[in-house]
Design goal:
Order of helices and strands: HEEEEHHH
Number of strands: 4
Shape: globular
Largest sheet: 4 strands, antiparallel
Oligomer: single chain
Structural class: alpha+beta
Distance between the termini: 18 Å
Radius of gyration: 15 Å
Strand order of the largest sheet: 1-2-3-4
Number of helices: 4
């Protein structure tokens, strides 16, 4: 997911703080600032990453962030008004999943 996001990002800025780890597990807090391409709106998204490292690579990774706050910035008044609803959040997750599946398929065919 991060490879896809970084590859498509416009004017992306990332910062990391509170990096911690031990016994293969790690976490950090992050702030990503970028322009959300579909709407052209500026987004500052704050989150926390949890990951597991195996054989020197990230084997598992989960990000937590406030999807309502993200949707208000990325989608404007519609996101602010409906961003808390399961319907909008589910739609955002499904679209992200579809985009990721397309990205993975395209990458596999280019190898």
């Amino acid at each position: 997911m991060w490879e896809m996001l970084l590859g498509n990002a416009r004017d992306l800025s990332l910062s990391f703080t509170n990096v911690a780890g031990g016994a293969g597990y790690g976490s950090c807090e992050w702030v990503a600032t970028y322009t959300f391409t579909p709407t052209g709106r500026k987004v500052t998204n704050k989150g926390k990453a949890h990951f597991f490292i195996s054989e020197g690579k990230i084997a598992e990774h989960q990000d937590d962030f406030n999807l309502w706050k993200w949707s208000a910035q990325a989608l404007g008044w519609q996101g602010a008004l409906f961003g808390w609803t399961s319907a909008l959040q589910s739609g955002v997750r499904k679209k992200a999943r579809r985009n990721l599946e397309k990205f993975i398929a395209a990458k596999a065919t280019s190898l």
